[in-house]
Write a structure and sequence with these properties.
It holds the Pfam family HTH_26. This protein has six helices and no strands. It is mainly alpha-helical. The longest helix is centred in the C-terminal third of the chain and has 34 residues, at about 85-115. The N and C termini lie far apart (about 90 Å).
């Protein structure tokens, strides 16, 4: 079976995401920061950030250098089996954000409705906090 270029690229992107996520996880597990890799690889903070967020394509040598700096095998950093955990975490965060946005929109609609409702006849209007009537 022949694989298409698009399919191959999708797999490469998936592996890049797995690599970035695995490197971040190893850094976290070892109590290290990205600055550790910045110093070990002698690159700028911006370059390392781009490497680890996937916005910059890694060269093979850079992947090896990162694996070496973390005392890891490159294949273990490319392992996609941990992606299920990554995707579950990302989906959970997206769902939390969606719920939060939904609640904010509902609150906004309720506040708009309260502003539109005229004061009922016979009801007492309460002045806003800090309001002081003028005296003549």
């Amino acid at each position: 079976m022949e694989t298409s270029y698009a399919s191959t690229m999708k797999k490469a992107e998936y592996r890049t995401t797995a690599f970035c996520w695995n490197v971040k996880k190893v850094l976290h597990d070892k109590g290290l920061s990205q600055n550790y890799l910045v110093e070990k690889l002698d690159v700028s903070c911006a370059t390392m950030s781009q490497m680890l967020n996937g916005s910059r394509h890694l060269r093979f040598e850079e992947g090896l250098a990162i694996a070496d700096a973390l005392d890891m095998d490159l294949n273990s950093l490319l392992d996609t089996r941990n992606m299920a955990e990554f995707l579950a975490n990302r989906n959970r965060k997206l769902e939390e954000k969606r719920r939060e946005n939904e609640l904010l929109m509902q609150l906004s609609r309720e506040m708009d409705e309260q502003k539109k409702e005229p004061a009922e006849a016979g009801s007492v209007s309460v002045p806003p906090r800090g309001f002081e009537p003028r005296t003549r």
